[in-house]
Amino acid sequence: MRGTYGAMGPQRILFITPNFPPFAQAGAARTGALALHWARQGHKVTAIGARIGTASGIHSELEHSNLASVMLPIDKPEPQGSQSHVEGKSTTGSKPGKLKRWLWLARQMPDRFRAHWVPRAVQEAIELGGGDAFDLIYSSGPPHSAHIAARQIAAATDLPWICEQRDLWVDNPYIERHPFLTRYYEWQGRRVQRNADAFVAVTTGARDTLAQQTGKEVVLARNGWVESDFAGLEAAPTPLDPDRLTIVHAGLIYAERRDPKALFEAIAMLGEDRHKVRAIFYHDEYGFLDQRIREHGVADSVEVLDFLPRSEILAVERAADVLLMCRWPHPAEDDVIPGKLFEYIGARRPILATGLESGEAAKIVGEGGFGLATQDAGKIADQLRNWIASKKAGGGRIPDLPKDAALKFTRNEAFAAIDELVGRFASA
């Protein structure tokens, strides 16, 4: 029966999440880590994900005898012999009217996975055996189409469903659309959420918001980091640059929000010492960084490189002097913890978090002794000078942060709450 409780042994978990290795986006390492966590505990995990072409190569494919994955295409298949372009020109006819475009946009809600991936995921779950093959459905989004698919599978199989929102679907301050589309987007989210048996959130603010929205149980399970990710990287590596303080940003830059402006202002304040700083970014959104670099005149201290596979970026993080996390300097960011924060903690290098000095992420950085969280360029400039001096005193490398502090934020610690929830909600 749906919602059965009790002490359970190994479970058969149907994991619905488009972002799954090896096709997960850079910020979605959690899904693969959670699946491996379950598999290593003896649970049988079947993940239904999506073939996201732009994400290929960022994460390695997962291998475990208790883990199986099915990666489904996103787009509508083209009929055999069809040709969408002739001599470089579209054959679709005239530009669609406003009503047709609005209908198309509505069909893309909550994201591009809804139209074709969702029905494929539901069909795949049924063909794999449905309620006879699994004990529980666990969905993780964004993309929030994962929850639409999970809701439909739960309705067809009567299996219990746990809905994990790594970012909020409803009342998410990062979502900007036309007011009409926003109302539809959030109506859709509330409608889908009503059918979930329980929820998982990754910040205390999101947990409280989801509890208020749904009136159901919401468990907090932050992202955390995995010790095995840094296997072979424990010893202090050769510095990326023995002569210059090397600051690495390994996550996503969100234009006009997660902005390195404060760091660039601080570098400009250093005078001649600015040449002792080298900031490296492994992503640029729509040329936004290039624009900021020109604005602040720091091209001699900042470089932008292409994404690296996660296995390579972890080694870069260990070899860096400082790891940069950009936060939105807005009160809405108080309830957001970028997933990269925990990976940075695992790398045991000092952290510079730009943005507000308040909020969950800033509290972890400050109270954990992991670095500095501020939007004050003057404070950042002073800290850069201190790090430059520490690097020189350390013979070209700033000492690693204590491991004991980092161990408080491992994924095993964070996932313990999910384990308890799965044990209670798995079907008999």
TrEMBL record:
<keyword id="KW-0808">Transferase</keyword>
<feature type="domain" description="Glycosyltransferase subfamily 4-like N-terminal">
    <location>
        <begin position="28"/>
        <end position="215"/>
    </location>
</feature>
<dbReference type="InterPro" id="IPR028098">
    <property type="entry name" value="Glyco_trans_4-like_N"/>
</dbReference>
<protein>
    <submittedName>
        <fullName>Glycosyltransferase involved in cell wall bisynthesis</fullName>
    </submittedName>
</protein>
<feature type="compositionally biased region" description="Polar residues">
    <location>
        <begin position="80"/>
        <end position="94"/>
    </location>
</feature>
<dbReference type="Pfam" id="PF13579">
    <property type="entry name" value="Glyco_trans_4_4"/>
</dbReference>
<dbReference type="Pfam" id="PF13692">
    <property type="entry name" value="Glyco_trans_1_4"/>
</dbReference>
<dbReference type="GO" id="GO:0016757">
    <property type="term" value="F:glycosyltransferase activity"/>
</dbReference>
<feature type="region of interest" description="Disordered">
    <location>
        <begin position="73"/>
        <end position="96"/>
    </location>
</feature>
